[in-house]
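G.,

No rush on this.
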Amino acid sequence: MRLVSVASVGLVFVAAPFCTAFTSGQDVDRQHEDVWSKIAPFFQPPKELDGHLDDYTSPLLFDNGRPVRTPKEWQQRREEILRFWHEALGPWPALIERPAVEVLQTENRERFIQNKVRLQAAPDLEIEGYLLVPPGDEPRPAVLVVYYDAETGVGLNPKSKLRDFGYQLTRRGFVSLSIGWPTSYTQQESPSRQPLSSLAYIAANCYNALANLSEVDPKRVGVVGHSFGGKWAMFASCLYDKFACAAYSDPGIVFDEKRPNVNYWEPWYLGWEAGKTRDRGVPSENNPRTGPYKTLVEEGRDLHELHALMAPLPYLVSGGAEDRPLRWKALNQAIAVNRLLASEHRVAMTNREGHSPTAESNEQLYLFFEYCLKPDPGAPTRPHNQ
């Protein structure tokens, strides 16, 4: 297999533009400000939750209890958190710096190019996915879309509506790569690494695959997923710092045994343990926790520590049934880290009633990516430029 620049395959784009692309000068500033005006409220907790930290242990405390007081100390603390989670979930193999990407099939779809690709996602793993490329020669922002299957992300799965993040973002000018869950690989790796960590490792290699394409600006690559894909996107962006931003659609952003669908305790997420099995469902006295999940809960660890690793990069929780407004109590911990770093407007949440995405919640998510990843030279309010 070989690394392929999609432009090198000699495809012909339909010439007419179809997406709202930011240009330069005053038009760029105006469009950027317009997008910000629409998403700014998402970066502010409700008044009744503003500053509420609940019982979560502050990520601004070293494991020995010493407080973090400076940005330099935060970098030390960040390394401590990252090291702990990698050790708890199982260390990664070396990343693949230039994963091989092979174009299997190419077609013109609407006004972009749809490539079915095979790529190297781990040393002994090749997966297939869809790479969508809009017209243009300049390096563009890109988004990795993760879900159970690659077809959903590009709108080719009629049973999964409003989960076609890759398709919709490519229509807005983004390169997108949509991939699915290689379950046999994560099961195979479970003796040494929890499945969610293996998935994050795969996503990191997919970032490298995107970053090596001439069509992609490696500094402007985000990651997104819904539900299980939201868990995957969250672990990927928090454990690998090359992603410029991320959006998580109702994954359950903290451990919560009152919500059966926030099921990190299951062996296909964080509960795998050699020689032990448990019945599916919420942990109980008769069905106890297993694996690293058991240890994390007993030690008072929670996923707010992972969120803190994103600072100062922006992320959005597109909350639904599993991530209600009360989750701001966890997100406020990441806000506190960002404030130590003199960074504002890095943590956002939207809310809807049900678990499934809606047209409104998706539009909010797409605007978030436009604001964070579209070109905007010199804009002072742009999160990843501060």
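When you get to it, here's the other one too:
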Amino acid sequence: SLSSVTKSQRLSELEFDLPINQFDWNHFPTLLDNNNIPIRINTEKPVTGILNGKIDLFFEQDNRYYLLDWKSNHLGSKPEDYHPEALAASMEENNYYLQYYFYCLALLRYLRLRLPDFDYEKQFGGVYYLFVRGIRQGTNHGIYFHKPLLSDLLQLEEVFLKQMI
């Protein structure tokens, strides 16, 4: 429960900047996590510069770090309309998978800088996308959870980001 996360265990609206290499989107993976996570790119133009974003909530619970994003998408009028398949369809339609991979990459870099012995497999808990219109106590409706593979994040970091100086 989020009510058990104290103020000292969380950062709201965590802003990040990711320096982008001259990057050709044609080399960006279209499927991640053993081909289960579809990624859609809406441009073919090479990009460079800084990607800026804000993570709704970054928190620590039981020595594991998580990110959480609130979503208000309307998927239907009943809590049952927010079942896992409907959430997956909305995640793909809105390209939220790509969004949270960037968020995870930013957090990976953040945690490696602040915790010299950071171990992704043991200390990163995963990603929550909470579709607030569908959440009801006692169900998992409206709750999307995933923990990206470290190998995918390292691959994205290698091809997408400039090296830190």
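The two ends are 39 Å apart (CA to CA). The first strand starts at residue 10 and ends at 23.

Enjoy the weekend,
O.
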